[in-house]
Each structure stands twice: as C-alpha cells, then as structure tokens.
Amino acid sequence: MTTTDKPSQTTELQSMSPTEPGAQTMTLSVGPQHSGSGHMRLIVELDGDIIINAMPDPGYVHRGIEKIIELRNIIRSIPVIERPSIIDASNLNHAWVKAIEELQGVEPPARGQYLRCLLNEMNRIMSHLYWLSIYGVFLGHTTMFMWPLGDRELFIDLAERLTGARITYSYLVPGGVRRDLPQGFAEEAIKRTIYFEKRLDEYEKIFFENPLFTSRAKGIGTLSPERAIALGSTGPTLRGSGIDRDLRKDEPYAAYSELDFKVHTRPDGDSYSRAMVHMDEMRESSQLIRQILKRLPSGPVRRKAPIVVPRGEAYARVESARGECSFYMIGEGGDKPYRARYITGSYRNMAAIPEVLKGVRLADMPTSWWSIDYWPVEADR
Amino acid sequence: MAPITGKVKAAISSWVAYSVGLRHLFHKPYTLKFPQQRYAVEAGFRGRHLLHLDRCTGCGICAWICPEKCITIVQRGDRWFPQYFYGRCCFCHFCTDYCPEFALEETVEYDIAEYTRELLVWSPERLARPPVRKEDKYVFSVDGPRGASQVPEQGH
What we know:
The structure holds two protein chains of two kinds.
Chain A: E1 2-3, H1 11-16, E2 26-30, E3 41-47, E4 50-57, H2 65-68, H3 78-82, H4 89-104, H5 110-138, H6 142-163, E5 172-173, E6 176-177, H7 185-208, H8 211-217, H9 225-230, H10 236-239, H11 247-250, H12 271-295, E7 312-320, E8 323-331, E9 339-343, H13 345-349, H14 352-357, H15 365-370, H16 376-380
Antiparallel strand pairs in A: 1-2, 2-3, 3-4, 5-6, 7-8, 8-9
Helix pairs in contact in A: 4-5, 5-6, 5-12, 6-7, 7-12
Chain B: H1 2-23, E1 38-39, E2 49-51, H2 61-65, E3 71-76, E4 79-85, H3 94-98, E5 104-106, E6 121-122, H4 124-127, E7 136-141, E8 149-152
Parallel strand pairs in B: 1-7
Antiparallel strand pairs in B: 2-5, 3-4, 4-6, 7-8
C-alpha cells in the first residue's frame, strides 16, 4: 500500500500513481494470494474507496503449456490441455481434438459427437457451480459457498460413471470419445437434472433475489455492449452485456446443430446481469443434457484416427464455460504439432476487468470482478 | 411510497431466503467422514492399475504413451514388465487403452496414498495383486426424501 506523496519502493506500483502532484489517491495491490480461483494480482488505484483505475497482473500460474505440447505427441498432450481449467476440462479438450480432426480430416461418429456434447454440458454446469460457490464466499454468503459445491457432486458423480474420472477426464480423443454410455446412466442423469433444476429455484430464493446480493450487484460494474465488443469479451461476460453470441449456435460444432437450445442474454451489462446469465445457462445446459440423452443415436463412439498431425494449418474454436476457447495448430506430418496457439475464454475476458472495476467501490470489487468469471490459471496457461 | 415498497420487498425477500435456509437445517450431509465412511466407486473407475503378468509382453507401449512418464520397464528373469511410480501418475489410463495385449486394467481401488515416496513405486508383482475394496459402501443418491446425500449402497 502506498500513497503518491510517499514514493513507493516498487516501480510497478509507482507507474500506477497519477502524475499530478498532491493528488490524494492510493495504489493498492490485491493478491497475488489465492483468491479462490488461482494466483493473480489486481493493482487498483483508489480515490477514497472508489476505484479509478485497475490493472490485472497475470502470469503467476503460467505453465508454458504451448511449449509443452510441442514436445509431446497429441495423445500425451490431452491431460496437459485440460490442466488450465480442470473444472471445465472437457470443453478445452474439445478445442484440441477439433483442431487435430480438422487437419486429419476425420469426422467422429454421430454417437461420439452427442457424447462429447453431453460431457461438455455437464462441465459447463460444474464450472458455473464452482464459479457460483466462489461468488458466494466472496460476498460472505457461506450457504451459497456450500450448496453449489455440494450440488456439483451430482454431475461429478455422473461424469465419473461416464468417463471413470471425477474431474480431468481425458475423455475426448481424436476420432470420437473413449467410452460408451454405461448401463443405467441415462435414467440417473435425467433424475439428477430434474433435481438440480429444483435446487436452482432455491438458489434464486436464497441468493439471487436476496437483497444482500442484489444491492451489491445491480447497476454495479457495468460493461456496455459497445465496450464489451471493443474489448473482445466473450462467453457469459459478453452475453451479460446483451450481445447474442454463442459459438454453439453461431458456428455449430459436434452435435449442437441438431439440438434445441436458447442463448441467454441480459441487457444491463452489470454484475447482476452477468451472474444471471450463468444461472440461465445452467438451466439451459440441464435441459440440454436430457435432450442429448433422449436423442442419442446408436452406433460406434469412436473412429480410427492415427497419432499424426498432418502437414497444414487448422483453427478450431469451441464455446467453453468461460467463453471462446481456440487452438491454432500447425502440423508438419509428425506425431506432435509444430506449433499450437492456445487461447482461452478467461484470457480474452481479462481486458474487461479494468473497464468493469472503474468507478466501483473497493468493497464491491469482488462482486464485480468475479462476475466476469476470470480464471487465472486458464488465462495464464 | 416507492422506497417503502422497496423496503417491504427487501424484507420479504430476506425472510424467503432465511426460510429456504432453515428448511435445509435437517438435510443429511453431502460429505462423508473419510476414512471411517468410504465412498464406493462403480466398475470402470480409473483407479490404480491391475497388471496381468501372463498377458504382458513387455513391449513398452504403455511407457511410450504415458503423459507423465511414470512407467519404467523393468526386467524379471528373461521377461520385461512395467513398473509404476504413482507419485507422478495422473490416472488418465491411456496405458490401459493402448495396451495391445489387454494386460492392463483399471480397478476400483483409489486409496493408495503412502507415507514415503519409495512406497509409491509399484513393482509388477504389486500391480498384479487383486484390488482391495476396503469397506467402500457409500454412494451418492438423489432418491432420498430430503434430497441428495451419501447413502449406504444397496445390498452391502
């Protein structure tokens, strides 16, 4: 913590100080302790308790994944691809296999495509529930911390039956998926989604309609549609500003073109809108799971695909829980890519953090910042 | 009049929130007192590996595909077998998938924590032991009258 009249020890903090002499602003470093989602730092400049400038300081959990995957064959890379966001592992894995399949010219069988969507939607719910529990604890609402983490077990348990693993599934491989649906899975999944939707009603009553939350979220941390587009926001952050953009609808991949679902948007662009988009998406994903299980075609789940990245370039993107996740891949005919560029939803949304925090009180910072669903590990990769 | 309506609405919403919370006061917990109460995983769970010594040819494909490089091929007489270091294993089971002789299998044994690093090295003989299922009997269910909770498995 420094003030402008007392020169700071750190050059980084000094650079954040206003230039005019005698200005009574304070620069505060928030983090880089683990704030519930990974190590990151926010450098905020305060006038009283109003944030006049905020700067994200990422990089504390950088792993060099783009370099690691240049050194491993495409199958060995799968567990690494999932690591940046283990709570949304399937969606990140999907972008990877989609890029490889594009280069190989392999089209997975229909059942495999549906099973990919099934795990993607389960992951979307799990990721949003994790986000919600951290949101609850940021606001001091301990019940909202406990409930979503508990209800996440509904889907973790289902994913465990489907894939054999609770979090990092490595389920999607080039050519399809690794396993077929186990016996009795569909009935159990339908039962659980119905139960989950009842729980979502309770979440609304205890948290989303609670004045404790609404008074700290409505009209706070606003991101206008124009600025959201200009800053390259994506996922629930963009949809929370009223922009109807979802890759599942706009550029349908896997089985999404055959499924009926709505893209949920909220017009206001404040913390409350972004939070409610997450809530609406959980409901939509829950009904999507039932729909996938009802329409699941029969047949094989996997087609033969070699462990080869053919010569050429490919770009694949999917709608992950936090927005657009993409891979740009260059192959040279070996079993590993020459280069793979990996961009995730959190990385794209990082630019919106200063915009959202401007003019917000320091006490409202967690509500505004976390409504973006910024996952530092996913952004740093 | 508007602020009063707002306050009344806020008061009602607060009480609704309290009542929803109170309703769950007697809900069974989601958590288990591990290791006294143990979670039972279903067949197909990617727990520790089971090695069929008679089928293994020691080809080393498992060691080649392993993302974490946790498999070493060791010699036993005139044959070769995989040895696992579970300190590195991420339980992706690509080794099981890629084994051409079906010599590897996933098991329901998940509690393999040890006190020393040396004990995390599983020799081929140790991998060939049948999986131990210690009193694992709790499963997650949404069928209970008070919602989702961990319940003892039927028929246990």
